[in-house]
Amino acid sequence: MPLLSRKTLLTIAAVMDIALHARNQLVSAKDLAARHNLPARHLEPMLQVLVRQGILKGVRGPRGGYELARERRRITVDDIVKAAHSIEDDSANTLPASRLLKQVVVPAVAQAEKAFATALGRITIEDLVRRSESSDDSIAES
Description:
With 142 residues, the protein is mainly alpha-helical. The chain contains 6 helices and 2 strands, in the order H-H-H-E-E-H-H-H. The chain starts with 5 loop residues before the first helix and ends in an 8-residue tail after the last helix.
C-alpha cells in the first residue's frame, strides 16, 4: 500500500523533471506531460499550486514554462507533498464521530505521519537529481 497518492508522486516527479531539464530553458507543461505520458491539462493545476507555494516559477507566453523557484537543495520532498495535499479533495475523507478514532487511531497515525514528513524533509530535489544522474540509465536524458 503506497503512503503517497498517485497525484502526489506525479507532483514530485514533475518537480524533479523540471530540475533535470530546466538548465538553460524553461520546461513547458506540454513537454513535461509528454515525458510522463499525461495530458498537459492534467498537470496544469498541480504546476500552478507549485508556483503559488514558491516551489516553481511560471512564465506565461509562447516561450513560457516552468523552472525551479529556489535552489534544488532548498526544496524538500516534504515541501512538494504539502503542496500536493493542498490540491487533493479531502471532503470525501471525512471521518465519522468515533471515540476510538479520535482518541486512539488518529493520534497514533498522526505521530507516524509526522515521522514520515520528517524523513521526507531530509530528501531534497538535489538528492533525487544526484540519484538520477548516477543511475545506469540516465533518466535526465529521457
